[in-house]
Amino acid sequence: MPLVVILATGGTIAGTAAAATDTTGYRAGALGVDALIAAVPALAEHRLESESVAAIDSKNMDIATWQRLAGRVAHHVARPEVAGVVITHGTDTLEETAYFLHRVLAPSKPVMLTAAMRPASALSADGPANLLDAVTVAGTPGARGVGLVFAGALWAAVGLRKIHTLQTSAFAGSDCGPVARLEGGAMRRFRDWPAGEPLGLARIAADADAWPRVEIVLNHSGADGRLVDAAVASGAAGIVVAGTGHGTVSDRLDAALARARDAGVRVRRASRCAFGPVLPHGDGDVEAAGELSAVQARIELQLALLA
């Protein structure tokens, strides 16, 4: 059997509540990784190793945890006997962690994140099936790259979005749709495994407190740009604007962004829409975020500034 390493970071998948009917008032990250594995009898048929990297609610995900997680993923991927890695994670910031690992590591082996919308204590917990599917993908010959296995689908990291606050089918991806679906324990693949060029761990080696600050500003009715001015005044090195529609911004917000550029602040344009890219205005336009959401564009800008 292929060896799969499970790295736990906490989240709802490891959450517990006082009542089995409570799916919102739980404590995230309460269970250890061994308890998660024991709750899925079918995993006994797999060859596994497990390790706890963190035990947090992913709303509290931070740079230091990302650095530690990336280091552990890189360590295990480099082991020749390891077929792939599974990361259990909270759903709230999963799309950010997935994109971060994709850009920094771009692994040639599968690194599959998985999660849950209902705690482990719930009558209808969705975590066990998601974990089993993730291990299945991580042990599949030829699989590669960073992705999310969730609710029977495998999504690429780029363009990944959480789209619902409560439903168990809470994620979607780019216009290309899922990479594959898991049905009856088997995987149906629809397109090639996403690839990329790794930036490497050296890019993120700076102390977490020394990372460049990048803020996100939303365009909306009456947006006047004062938040941009405040971000620049407080030392932001970059600003991502989640624009309306195809990344458009109000005239007053646009003027504030121009002042930010003049002050040496880097700008990226994303959209507040759930789906659809923000395309460049021309060949020299490096500010368009493409299919990245605002939060993924923020990571991309941070990594660029770290260079």
TrEMBL record:
Keyword Hydrolase: yes
Gene Ontology biological-process entries: asparagine metabolic process
Regions that span the bilayer: none
GO molecular function: asparaginase activity
Highest taxon of the lineage: Bacteria
Active site positions: 12, 91
Keywords, alphabetical: Hydrolase
Residue stretches making up the L-asparaginase N-terminal domain: 4-188
Asparaginase/glutaminase C-terminal domain location: 213-305
Pfam (any one): Asparaginase
Residues given in the record as substrate binding sites: 58, 91-92
InterPro entries to which the protein is assigned, alphabetical: AsnASE_II, Asp/glu_Ase-like_sf, Asparaginase/glutaminase-like, Asparaginase/glutaminase_AS1, Asparaginase/glutaminase_AS2, Asparaginase_C, L-asparaginase_C, L-asparaginase_N
Family, as annotated: Belongs to the asparaginase 1 family.
Identification of the protein by name: Asparaginase
Source organism (scientific name): Scleromatobacter humisilvae
Phylogenetic placement of the source organism: Bacteria, Pseudomonadati, Pseudomonadota, Betaproteobacteria, Burkholderiales
